[in-house]
Amino acid sequence: MTQSQALSILKTGANVFLTGEPGSGKTHLLNEYIKYLRDHSIEPAITASTGIAATHIGGMTVHSWSGIGIKTRLEKSDLNKIKTSQYIVRRITKAKVLIIEEISMLTDDTLSMVDTVCREIKQNSKPFGGIQVILAGDFFQLPPVVRREINANDQTTIIERPQTIFAFDSSSWKELNPIVCYLTEQHRQEDEDFLELLSAIRRNVFNNNHLFHIEKRKINPFDLAQNKSLTNIPKLFSHNADVDRINDEVLSSIPGKQNTFIISVQGPDPLIAALKKGCLSPEILYLKVGASVMFTKNNPKEGFVNGTLGVVDGFDKITGNPIVKTRNGRKIEVEPMNWSIEENGKIKASISQLPLRLAWAITVHKSQGMSLDEAVMDLSQVFEFGQGYVVLSRVRKLSGLYILGWNEQTFQVHPEILSKDKEFRQDSSIIENMYSKISFFELQKKQDNFIRVCGGKPKSSFFEKLDTYTETLLLWNEGKNILQISELRKFTEGTILSHIEKLVLKGKINRSDLSRILTPALKNSLSKIHDIFHELNTDKLSPVFEKFNGRYSYEELRIARMLMDKK
Questions:
Q1: Helix and strand tally (H, E) in the chain?
Q2: What CATH number is attached to the domain comprising 137?
Q3: Strands of the sheet with 264-266, listed across from one edge
Q4: Bridge partners of 379?
């Protein structure tokens, strides 16, 4: 499926699982959809499974957004506590669209907890309380990591282990039943041999022919140390200790003055902590002339994106900012940039730091989402399914790979994902074929209807405005109550009730669905009210209202009339 096809489906308001191989443009597509929503006066809830992924799309972790935090299960008391937070209640109540990036790293339990919170706060039994949900990611990427308690030598120890149960195993996923949009275009790798190699890993058909290409890119540690042209190429490792050790050692070996850049923060501590965790730039950045660095933000106008490599060429005499010379020879004075958490278009917290980090070495987890021209990799300590694949797919072409070693698990992916991926591809093909048969005008109508339902402002002029009863029906079918519909449509509740009554008479709304606007008190009084309608032999509201001396409002009498059996 192409990006344009997937975007068209997203605009209809459908729940979607957006996936595809690394470099297929998932994040780019999400940003396009976010821009589209904002252009139509709709503010989406932008979240991700990790802080790093959240910063890539300018959001927050789904754990913070939903209020579940680091919980591994949700008790009734936890839910009640979440409901006391006006910030969480307000953001979920207002949410029309929820985006969750890097879904592969979210456990099934976490997804279910978010679903439960949304239903409870929205007071809507539909999945996620009726919010449009977009789950984005690639299950061939890194799996979830969860904290588990073990007892060793009579002491409780907290450890982190990969979780083998994926988000798609969640009952919430199954009930949501998202449309699968599997992107097939490639925007990162341009090397056919390399594309075939990566595809072979995904399909579990990696063989000696593919290994031949890997072996050609092998380099030994001695050659690496002697080859000065490789000094400033980033090195990817599985463990933080290796990364910190190499970066510190190389920086210390460079002569000259060390300049220090400290992060600045603004906002509440919990949000600041989340931003720091997701920021690829360190809290304290040490730089020297000659330091190998990598940009951690996108700013194409200034000549860099996340993953652009360069070397510190000097420091501006007035501002003190580093001047970085990129691989293509361009010199850029690097100024601090902001990472922020926004809600309803307002910045709730922000941090400011140079969009740089030392780039002699980085971890595999930190590399997820990056695109690199070159990288040195040690794959001999790969310890989980998908880790080797993530590292290899960071690089744009085979000639950019320098491999120190590998182990048996390097080229393996999770067996459950293999079969699930086939299912995802098939589902996406079916959807692609189905939507290809929908006319442009019909698709436009679906998209405009969704904008209306969200309270936005459609800009399309391809068809006439919906009649007033249909607009009310669309909002009713979204699970909205009388008050919500009246506020969105700028009509009185009485007018909306008259619309609903008309729709009931036309058979557009089932009488059984009216139970959701029936209060317990009115339910107990229905037979009494119906008797008066029959006694007066009328279906007009005024005589019944007068008979009860105003005991029941006209709105209550109208609801009762809709539920009355005709005699």
A1: 23, 22
A2: 3.40.50.300
A3: 264-266, 346-353, 337-343
A4: 406
Q: For 13, which DSSP code?
A: T
Q: Which of the residue ranges 36-40, 77-81, 221-225, 551-555 would you say has the lowest mean pLDDT?
A: 221-225
User: Of 544, 562, 548, 552, whose CA–CA distance to 497 is shortest?
Assistant: 562
Looking only at the bridges linking them, the beta strands covering 337-343 and 331-333 are unpaired
Contact 324, 293 (CB under 8 A): yes
| Together in a domain, 102 and 40 | yes
Q: Specify the CATH number for the domain of residue 541.
A: 1.10.10
Domain ranges, residue 502: 464-562
Range in 28-42, 363-377, 439-453 the model is least confident about:
363-377
Q: Could you tell me if 286 and 433 lie in one domain?
A: no
Number of domains forming the structure of the chain: 3
Do residues 136 and 181 both lie within one domain? yes
The count of residues in the chain is: 567
Q: For strand 292-295 and strand 309-315, is the pairing parallel, antiparallel, or unpaired?
A: antiparallel
Tell me phi and psi for residue 550, to 5 degrees.
75, 10
pTM equals 0.62
Please check whether residues 431 and 488 belong to one and the same domain. no
- Phi/psi at 218 (nearest 5 deg)? -75, 145
Binning pLDDT at 50, 70 and 90, where does residue 93 land? very high
Residue 51 corresponds to which amino acid? G
**Does 103 map to a domain?**
yes
Which pLDDT score, from 0 to 100, does residue 150 have?
39
- Residue 21: closest CA among 363, 425, 411, 383: 425
Question: Which of 17-31, 135-149, 383-397 is the most confident on average?
Answer: 17-31
DSSP 123-175: T--SGGGG-EEEEE--TTSPPPEEEEEEEETTEEEEEEEE--SBGGGSHHHHH
Output phi, psi for 537, to 5 deg: 50, 55
Structure tokens at 120: 């409870």
Averaged pLDDT, 467-487: 82
Residues 405, 437 within the same domain: no
Which tokens sit at 173? 């996923």
* Residue 155, helix vs strand vs coil: strand
Helix (H) or strand (E) holding 47: strand 45-48
